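Data card: per-record layout.
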Amino acid sequence: MLKELKIRNLALISDLTLEFKEGFNVLLGETGAGKSIILDAIDFALGAKADKNLISHGMELMKVEACFEDYNQSVSTVLKEMGFEDEGLLIISRSLGIDGKSDIKLNGNTLTLSMLKAVTMYLADSYSQHENLMLLKEKNQLEILDSLTDGLDNLKQELKSLLAERRFIGEKFSMLGGDDQNRNRELEFLKYQIDEIRDLNPTNEEENTLMERFKILSSSEKITNALEEAYFCLNQNNSALSQIKTAQKDLNTISEYSESFEQLASRLESCYYEVEDICMTLRNEMSHVKYDQHEMDQVDSKLDKYKDLKRKYGSSVELVLKTLEDLESKYQMIANADEQLVKLNVELEKLNKKINDACQKISLQRKKTATEFENGMCQQFLDLGMKNGRFKVEFVQTEPNLNGYDNVRFMFSANLGEELKPLSKIISGGEMSRFMLAYKNLNVKEKSTVIFDEIDSGMAGEIGSQVAKKIANISISNQVICISHLPQVCAMADNFFFVYKTSDNQKTQSHVEVLNEEQKVEKIAKLSGGEGITSEALAHAKSLLVWACDYKNSTKSKQSK
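The structure for this 561-residue chain is written out next.
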């Protein structure tokens, strides 16, 4: 329920704090006093479209803070889905600046407008603006019907398990290639992939050899020049090889004089043979390095094939070969899957029948509830003076899903001879208020705050008394906040807020006063008798309050039994 409402700089209200209570809260006051401004403030906090024109004249920012407690389980569920801790108390703060900048917070956490609406759609029903009506949105109507239907949870859980089984069988079908056409297509593609890898027959050794050969061929000129230069330095006229030979001979001529000279000559001899071997190797390498465009194209082409395979089947030759094993295994499994597919088809056929049966059970339960809902709503229409009002739940069968195979749409006609049309497209504002009043009298399962804006407009007499009773019924299990000018409706209220305005030379302001028992009688008498409050009007007001009290006590007593 809405526990507290703080309003700053909204239209005629500069600074106001209201404390609402359980049960039926009524807003009284002259036309134009500012009652609707309070409902505008609540709607703004609930996520209604922000309107800069509501900012008080001369002010830069308007702000509304709404504190809710004792809310229903659906609100708690949404909070948890959003990742917020459910603290048992919700403080919604929303502001709008004259520059168009806005800010929304929930318990200090910043929210988007869509997040705010996701919470408040279960927190309150405001029947002063169509965009806040859960019931008008067709996507919610199946959920609303199900909330009225007992025994669906177990049936839906059974259906959920059956659909999960079918998904599992579908996955098996996919693994085995599906139907004959898809299997043949899958086998052809697998064969193409397998052949593509086998044709190349990749190995790490070959890839490394190709990469090395490619490097040499692509730099052949540089390599050839370096090899030739090295060979020239080692084995041409006056080269290193001839110099070593000369030095060795010189040392041999003096080797008899010292063992050290002999050792040096021997080492130079070893160097000579080593350099000579290097020269032979250089000459051999030069013969291999010779650039060959045809060979270059072949090496480049084969390396491209390696790159292509690694791009498709793995980042290395090892992974490509592992993929080949997997593809071959899958090919064999699909190629030999006939017997398994026959078994799966039998299972699927049985499962589809079970799913259809489960959907049918859910649908029958819904249709039974829908008939009761339709009859109940039409009876409520009679009580509320809509004697020609008709209501129908239209069913359309769809593919089975977690909710069964039903889609529903609420159809409505207010006048004799007028065909039933979707509720959202045909109902007027006044009709919508009575419709919601009727609906709330049939569905009081989840606690919420219910807000009515002059729902009794244009009513009197017995119809007015019926409206008063309907609102009282709702207020037993829901908090009601309502603007009313009808004495019967006001008499049913548990809490009275009198809205009035004052003016000075500079501005007009709206104020709210909580009425005591004596003031309640006076205000109801004024509603009954006009400007002058006669003794008869006071007596009538007291009798209305007694009537209202007796009705509420009687209704509460019946509900407690």
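Known properties of this structure: The chain is about 60% helix and 20% strand. The longest strand covers residues 390-401.

See the next section for split statistics.
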